[in-house]
Amino acid sequence: MKDIKILTNYWGKINPLKIEDYLGVGGYSALKKFIEKMNQQKALGEIKSSSLCGRGGAGFPTGQKWEVVAKNSIKEKYFICNFDESEPGTYKDRMIVENNPHLLLEGIIIAALTIGAKKAYVYINGNYETQKDILENAILEAQKNKFLGEKILGSKYFLEIEIFSGAGAYICGEETALINSIEGNRGEPKIRPPYPTEKGLFGKPTVINNAETVANIPFIIQNGGKKYAAIGSKNSPGTKIFILGGAVKNKGVIEAPTGITIREAIETLGRGLPRGKDFWFAQVGGASGRLATEKELDEKLDYGKNNNIPLGSGTILVVDKSINIYDLLLSWTGFFRRESCGKCIPCREGTFRLNEIIERLADGEISQRDKEAMQDILWTLESTTFCPLGKFAAVATRDAVDKLEILKD
Ligand SMILES: Cc1cc2nc3c(=O)[nH]c(=O)nc-3n(C[C@H](O)[C@H](O)[C@H](O)COP(=O)(O)O)c2cc1C
Ligand code: SF4
Fold first, then answer.
1. Which ligand 1 atom lies nearest to the CA of residue 65?
2. Which end of the chain is more exposed for a tag (fewer CB within 10 A), N or C?
3. Ligand nearest to the CA of 390
4. Residue ranges of E strands in 8-77
5. Are 346 and 336 in contact (CB under 8 A)?
């Protein structure tokens, strides 16, 4: 496996509170290149040719999203960096900010200027106070160095970045709920279309990108889209920060090219299971992720549209046979029960009832009626909810029923 580092190469080597350290390793040279040698069209061209796709879970092509907003001649536009990161087990965006906040800022500045926005927001989960302090310091340092504010590096460009703290609700990571939250409304999703690229924040064209997606931008501008496209898998190139947890020897965040298999992630990045532990399954993508059994370990970890096991946020939780599945199911279904925003009945009631049935299952008190009701509830969550959170709530339990046969007598 090639050792290519785009996002994590300076982690632990530079002080995140000192812009000089970032400048010392070539930081902000992509922004300088953008200002001195490129224009918005050229930068957009590089992002498109990189085939970068979103790291927030869905893998949507970044260049395509930017293009819609960049082409819109309206003056008021926004760029939002999604730093809500509430998926259980996922902490890659926080690690980016803790280790190299200026990489993220440089990406935000280039992104906003490319689409023609004069204001960018970082939407941060309200629980992340340390990361907020680090980002605030970085913004002040960037302003002092003329990377932000009026006449950026003596050019015509202007940009202001505001950090907006949410209340720490999982649903506020969903882009339309996030917009509602910044606008001062209740944090619940809106119907799409219109998509944020057409009618986003304050009704204006808006690009929303995940923090990890944004942190790739300086490399692409500095080295060219083609160089980025040659890394990792063809359909969704680049590197990915994987978050390994559970029964692996090497836990934590590890950057590797996209397209490695689940097996490679566990055996090479995670150095395998500790002695005496028997593999049972791996959950890929956080609490909303699917359960991959032995048969599926050669599935690729990328954003291919037809992947059996979606990569999602990049979290891989390795579960061995000593673990009580009911503990996990209680934790997953309990999470969605708490985080359902309550806007639509199938999710508000379904997440609640699913968690109750799992409680009875864990206590050995499940009835035939419960078993039938569970199938109905799973179908309802999968097929009728207003936003993807409802579908997410069913994923792990569905796989536990179908693959781990938890309902079998
Ligand atoms: C329930 C729910 C929660 C989400 N949480 C996050 C999140 O915490 N961070 C994030 O970047 N995207 C999250 N998303 C995805 C966003 O809606 C959006 O697709 C993403 O920020 C776009 O950025 P990207 O194209 O760079 O991936 C969530 C989606 C849903 C449905
Ligand atoms: S599916 Fe759940 S989170 Fe989404 S709108 Fe309905 S109640 Fe809210």
1. 25
2. C
3. 2
4. none
5. no
Does domain 19-229 fall under CATH 2.60.40.10? My reply is no
Pocket of ligand 2 (CB under 6 A): 171, 188-189, 340-344, 347-348, 385-387, 389-390
Confidence of residue 2 (pLDDT cuts 50, 70, 90): low
Query: Domain ranges in the chain?
Result: 19-229, 239-320, 325-402
Helix (H) or strand (E) holding 135, with range, is helix 129-144
Q: Which amino acid is at 251?
A: K
pLDDT tens by residue, 287-325: 999 999 999 999 999 999 999 999 999 999 999 999 999
CA distance 32 to 29: 5
Ligand 1 contact, 209 CB (< 6 A): yes
Q: Which atom of ligand 2 lies closest to the CA of 390?
A: 1
Indicate the CATH number for domain 325-402: 1.20.1440.230
Q: ω into residue 194 within 30 of 0, thus cis?
A: yes
Tokens 């085939």 — which residue? 51
Looking at residue 148, what is its pLDDT?
98
pLDDT at 3 (0 to 100): 81
342 CA to middle of ligand 2, Å? 6
Phi-psi category of 356—alpha, beta or left, where left has phi over 0 and alpha has psi -120 to 50? alpha
From the CB of residue 231, how many other CB atoms can be counted at a distance below 10 Å? 18
Residue from 47, 52, 66, 82 to probe ligand 1 pocket by mutation (most atoms less than 8 Å from CB) = 82
Rg (CA), the chain: 22
| CA–CA separation, 20 and 7 (whole Å) | 18
Preceding omega of 388 cis (within 30 degrees of 0): no
